[in-house]
Design goal:
The protein is α/β, with parallel strands linked by helices. The chain contains eight helices and eight strands. An eight-stranded parallel β-sheet has the order 7-6-5-4-3-2-1-8. It binds pyridoxal-5'-phosphate. Pyridoxal-5'-phosphate binds at residues 34, 36, 57, 78-79, 162, 203-205, 219-223.
């Protein structure tokens, strides 16, 4: 059995265990296979194992991989996004996880309008207030989400966070719980048709805790494809 297949079996077992602990259904969670820096051959192997949703953090890499792999898959942009790269994304990705400023949102609106489609997005929230991370502060998020409701070609589907790197996933539980509570408190102020339903939280080191706290999308790279080598 390939290492990717083995890893995926382990991840699936862990997802199910977390679902059992939390009294949740497996189908309430989307596993995003984060394939950044990994070759197309690894993605093809993951496809044969049943993966259909892939996450990348660079537009150029997304363009190359989606050009090469033409079967119908769901690609998500999960990384920090520059305004001048937005034009490539409508029609290429299903979801942008990393919207955290008005200029970026307005450019997504403009490009989505050009393609005559509605772009689904998540707002990225920096729950731990780390200087090194992008994202809105939790305090600024409700106002930001509201400000996006004037953009007709953009649909805010939920919130995303990248929790701090840690050896002990439990230390991130408050951030995941906080993101869920933030989503609910914002939803309480939104019209029925604007309700958000996606919580993108949890990576290789902490996805089980994130599931216990309500994640509907988890983004797993290393746990599926192995360590990344940035030197090559
Ligand atoms: C790389 C990356 C991941 C996956 O990280 P792993 O720890 O390898 O699972 C998840 N989310 C984002 C935004 C990333 O950039």
């Amino acid at each position: 059995m390939s290492i990717i297949r083995e890893n995926l079996q382990t991840v699936e077992k862990n997802i199910q265990a977390a679902c059992d602990r939390a009294g949740r259904q497996r189908d309430s969670i989307t596993l995003i296979a984060v394939s950044k820096t990994k070759p197309v051959s690894d993605i093809r192997e993951a496809i044969t194992c049943g993966c259909r949703v892939f996450g990348e953090n660079k537009v150029q890499e997304l363009r190359e991989k989606t050009a090469e792999i033409t079967e119908p898959l769901h690609w998500h942009m999960i990384g920090h996004l520059q305004v001048n790269k937005v034009k490539y994304l409508p029609g290429m990705v299903d979801l942008i996880h990393s919207v955290d400023n008005g200029k970026l949102a307005e450019e997504i609106e403009k490009q989505a309008a050009k393609h005559d489609l509605i772009m689904d997005v998540l707002c990225e929230v920096n729950m731990a207030g780390e200087d090194t991370k992008f994202g809105l502060s939790p305090e600024d998020t409700p106002g930001f989400v509201k400000s996006l409701s004037s953009l007709p070609h953009l649909r805010v589907r939920g919130l995303m966070t990248i929790a701090p790197y840690t050896e002990d996933a439990e230390t991130n539980r408050p951030y995941f719980k906080g993101l869920r509570e933030l989503l609910h408190s914002i939803n309480a102020t939104l019209a029925q048709e604007k309700q958000m339903d996606i919580l993108s939280m949890g990576m290789t080191g902490d996805y089980m805790v994130a599931i216990e706290e309500g994640a509907t999308m988890i983004r797993v790279g290393t746990g599926i494809f192995g360590e990344r080598n940035y030197a090559i």
